[in-house]
Write a structure and sequence with these properties.
Length: 215
Amino acid sequence: MGKLQAGILPVTPFQQNCTIFFDADSRDGVVVDPGGDIDTIIETVKQNGITVKEIWITHGHLDHAGGADELRERLGVPVIGPHVDDKPLLESLESQGQKFGVSAPLRNLVPDRYLSEGETVSFGEHVFEVLHCPGHAPGHVIFFNRRENFAHLGDVLFKGSIGRTDLPGGDHEQLLASIRDKVLPLGDDVGFLCGHGPGGRIGEERRSNPYLVGL
């Protein structure tokens, strides 16, 4: 097994971090949250010699899932996630795009498999535990690689901030509970990537993130 590698490709006008995980030796990998700009994503994986095995979705907002159906069609790989509680969001991706004035056409999405708390997803020998972390979106999931002490947190927790909760299905108190009960217990030394902006370490967020005071 080669080293787990991660590349970030900001996509769409929302500058969402489409993440590409891959094995440094086999070059097998997965695409996490292809919100759009599918030509760019495909060109990037081709240029880097990566064979995409699956598409993983953290939640059903348009900037994370809006391009998943097209990417699935073009690569011939399954879409995995999020939790089924985001089914209404995935069924309304097209209308989300119209509401936010997105010019690129979006497709509604039916995943090949929904995810639940305690399941795992993997490619090669790289295994990620699935945690259901609602609040930003009802069906939001995060991915934790225990071996690498690393997590992909989607829009749950950012460097210096947290996910917004003013969108349909958002719940501020539920989001804080997800962070307190699911994210922080992963450990202070766990590194993370997130859905927008730079990543960091959970311990630094515990100490300095103003939204986590009192958790």
